[in-house]
Every structure is written in structure tokens, then in C-alpha cells.
Amino acid sequence: MKIEFWYEFASTYSYPAAMRVEAAAREAGVTLRWRPFLLGPIFGAQGWNDSPFNIYPAKGKYMWRDMARICEAAGLALKAPVRFPQNGLKAARLALLGQDAAWGPEFTRRVYLANFSEQKDISDEGVLADILSSLSLDAAALIAQSNAPENKERLKAQTEEAVARGIFGAPSFLAGDELFWGNDRLEAALQWARTHP
Amino acid sequence: MKIEFWYEFASTYSYPAAMRVEAAAREAGVTLRWRPFLLGPIFGAQGWNDSPFNIYPAKGKYMWRDMARICEAAGLALKAPVRFPQNGLKAARLALLGQDAAWGPEFTRRVYLANFSEQKDISDEGVLADILSSLSLDAAALIAQSNAPENKERLKAQTEEAVARGIFGAPSFLAGDELFWGNDRLEAALQWARTHP
Predict the structure, then answer these.
(1) According to a count of CB atoms within 10 Å of the terminal CB, is the N or C end of chain A lower?
(2) ipTM rounded to 2 decimals
């Protein structure tokens, strides 16, 4: 029984999802795999050059209010990011390096906290280096590795895999080929994984 | 303690919401008001001349799968409508007549069943007349009344009220000025109404 958690660092609803997915999966007895990807190319292919929450103001206004309620209920701080959406490309390249490493989940959570509760610029390599260092990792080596051509290509391939598997937004959960979209579908995804092993 | 249920007959997720909202509100001890409106003018103002589920195929494919899971879990039949989206204008004009009448909720549920489980054309006045007759109502009189200029204007005004109050999709729930969007937010809306009387 396993699920994949597909996330994009600019995505608002991916923040509460990232903060709770590990504990929820553990409690459900479901193995979790973290899968960072990029929404930018997916939105671009749909003709959007910005977040739909900016393109459609009523939807954006609602989203921030909904996020405030969700974060308050979850005990998570939420502060307006330094910009929205932030550019999560460099953070995603690092998260991909950590995807199957012990440090990946905590790195991911700290990037989300930097974006949505600490008003830090997550496109800034210095900010990312601080997060890596806070985890006792070799920041300079990992950043160099994340910017290597093969890792850049790997993130492109991962985003292409997302599209091929039907993903169009974040967060998304996959239980096998069964797709669930949105923080509010985590429980349904875990339930599906448990009943369709 | 009360909530308003804002719905559009073409909206897929409004179908399971309409089928459960009355029982859920009763159980929560919350008074319910049914508010039909039209999404067409709202989508049109955003530059969409079709359902976003048709404009964005990956999102549409997911929605139908998600709806199948939700309806199966709720014990609701779901069959591909005769077209999607259907034109719910005439049904909405009738639902508006019944908005504060005893027959309104059951009329609304039967129109959703006609659309999403019985493969009937809900833009057809004959289909709507059959539903009214099945409720022992005077179909011809109500249809004439629904097409009167003042009722058409009333539906326009109701849709304008939806926009003014931040609504951008369906189903939506309002607890006072607090907006909740989506069938999956019904419980949160009821909880809000109970804790913010």
C-alpha cells in the first residue's frame, strides 16, 4: 500500500498537505513517496502565464481565505509570501535530489514554511543553502549537484511524467494510477491505497 | 444558525451537494436556504464560453473520475449527461420560483437526477413539466410564471448577488459573508454556521 505525493513549491494548498502527509500516511499504514514537479510548464500549456489565483481574482480572494481557515485549523502559520507565486524551480531541483533520501521530506517542509510562513524568497539560493545547512547537509555540494544538467533533465522528465499520469494541479496524490487532486483529497487517497493494495 | 446553498443545474459537483445538503443541515441544526443562480454569465466574464472541465481536458477527465468515486460512495447513480454542460436556465427560473416554497428542494433534486442519472435534457420544458407534475404541481402555470419578465430579472439579480458576494463557482455555501466553495466544503460551512451564530 503506497501513495505518491506530487507537489510544487509555489502551490498554496501543497503547504498544508506537505506538513501533514507524512504523519497521515504513517497512521494509515501507507508508504509515501515524495514527488516534486513544476506546475509552470503545465499551466503554460493551458495558456496561463501566471497562477490561476491571480488570473481569476474572485478565485484568488477565496483561496487565501480558505487557506487561512485551513492553516488555522491545522495550527500552521500563514503569512503573505514575498510574492505569489514564488519561483520554486531551484527548490524543486534540490527536493528532487532528496526525493528518496532521508532529508527530503524535512527539506520540503522547511521550504514550504519559508515560503508561506516566514516570508522568505525561496528562489534565492542563499535561503535554500540556509535550509540545507540547518539540516547539517553540505549546502554548496547539493546546490551544485542540483544545477547539474542531468538533474535539470530529471526534473523535466518528472514533470512530463506528471502530465502523462493526468496531473494538472498541486498537490496531487497517486495511488497506483488513481489520481486525487487537492489537500482535501489526502484522506480519500490513503483510503484508496488501503483498499486497493 | 443558517447557510445558503448556491447552485447551478449544469454543475457536476452541485449534484451530490444538492442530494445531501438538506439532511446534513438538519443534522447540524442549521437552517438552509436554497439559492439557484447561473454560472454562464460568471464564466463568460472570465473569458470562458464553455465549462472549464471542457476547456481543460485533464481537469475534466479527473472531475468525471472524482465524481464517479463521490457518487459511488454516496449511493448516487451517475450517468453521462445527454450533453455537458446542459443549459440549466429554464430549470433555474423554476427553482427560483420554488426557492422559498415547500416544493423547491425536491424539484431541485429531481432536476439534478434528470441531468446526471437519467440522461434527460433539462433544457426541455417537457422534461421540466414532467418533474413539476410528478410533484402534483400545476406545471403549465409555473412554467408560464417562470418565463415572466419579472422572474427572468429576478434570476439575473440573484446571479449578480452571487458575484457581489464573491461566488465564482458551484456549489457554494455562504454562512453570513463566509464563503465555502465545493461539495467537499459543506461540512466546513455547517461547522462555521454553528460556531458563528
Answers:
(1) C
(2) 0.94
Give CATH for domain A2-195.
3.40.30.10
Residue in chain A closest to B73 (alpha carbons) equals: A188
Distance separating alpha carbons of residues B7 and B167, to the nearest angstrom? 10
Residues of B in contact with A59 (CB under 8 A): 168-169
Q: What DSSP string runs through B26-42?
A: HHHT-EEEEEE--SHHH
pTM (2 decimals)?
Answer: 0.95
* Contact list, A166 vs chain B (CB under 8 Å): 58, 61-62
Q: What is the pLDDT of residues B123-156, one digit of tens each?
A: 999 999 999 999 999 999 999 999 999 999 999 9
Alpha helices in chain B (DSSP H): 14-28, 40-45, 52-55, 57-74, 89-97, 104-116, 125-134, 139-146, 149-164, 186-195
Question: Where do we find the cell 513517496?
Answer: A33
Say how far apart CA B97 and CA A157 lie, in whole Å. 54
Q: How far apart (Å, rounded) are the C-alpha atoms in residues B196 and B191? A: 9
Interface test with B, best of A69, A173, A174, A177 (most B CBs within 10 A): A69
CB contact under 8 A, A168 and B66: no
Q: Dump pLDDT digits (tens) for B82-97.
A: 999 999 999 999 999 9
Q: Name A174's bridge partners.
A: A4, A179
